[in-house]
Amino acid sequence: MSLKYLQSKREHPARTAAMKSIQAVESKDRAAWLAMWREDGLLQDPVGVSPLDPEGQGHQGIEAITAFYDNVIAQGDVRFFIRESFAAGNECANVGTITTRGADGSVARCELVMLYCVDDEGKVKSLRAFWEFDDLMETYF
After folding, report:
1. Which phi and psi (to 5°) does residue 32 adopt?
2. CB-CB neighbours of 38 under 10 Å
3. Tens-place pLDDT, residues 66-110
4. By three-state DSSP, how is residue 114 classified?
5. Which of 34, 43, 68, 94 has the most Cβ atoms closer than 10 angstroms to its Cβ?
6. pLDDT tens figures, 42-54
7. 3 state SS of 119
8. What's the whole-model pTM score?
9. Domain residue spans of the chain
10. Could you tell me which residues come within 8 angstroms of residue 96 by beta carbon, excluding any fewer than 6 positions away?
11. What are phi and psi of 57, to 5 degrees?
């Protein structure tokens, strides 16, 4: 389980934010997930141009981040498996796999690196997820 692995690592504010994010997403706790963000936060999931972000600029601000949650995250049952976590400065990079089960029963797996950056209060300034959309589409079954 991802949280056990992350909990076994040295405590770090960005790693704590990552754990809160995983807990909120897996438990479908929209309010908890949104509460971890700064009002001016930036979500790039994935980084760059994709069908989830046609302009490749990310989702800036709590309104855009809320829309991403409602339109993407809330549409499936998401599970995380984190294999590595590296914290430095005010950031944490987690390497792992996300598995999503859609309402129609479809399943997709995505290998990725997630970079969390927090402010001095531990609020998420940015979450940048590096993964390849085409690879995700090939894993649907």
Report:
1. -65, -40
2. 16
3. 999 999 999 999 999 999 999 999 999 999 999 999 988 999 999
4. strand
5. 94
6. 999 999 999 999 9
7. coil
8. 0.92
9. 2-139
10. 2, 80, 81, 82, 83, 84, 111, 112, 114
11. -100, -5
